[in-house]
Design goal:
The protein contains 4 helices and no strands. It is elongated. The model has no long low-confidence stretch (mean pLDDT 91).
Length: 68
Amino acid sequence: MPLPTWRQHPDLMARLTAAQNHPANARIDIMTFAGMCDSREELERHVERYERAAAEFVPPRRNCRKAA
């Protein structure tokens, strides 16, 4: 029985873990879907989507106004 796709590609899973830990993806479970990917190409597209979200993330502005 062959290994699941995610087990065959630890390089992609390491990248996905880094993307999961980014604030842009903190409230999204992106790891579970990786377990359903049937090919390296599908898994790579999934990883790239969330890496792109992390790269384009703009943190919310904080209200830095001092109290008078």
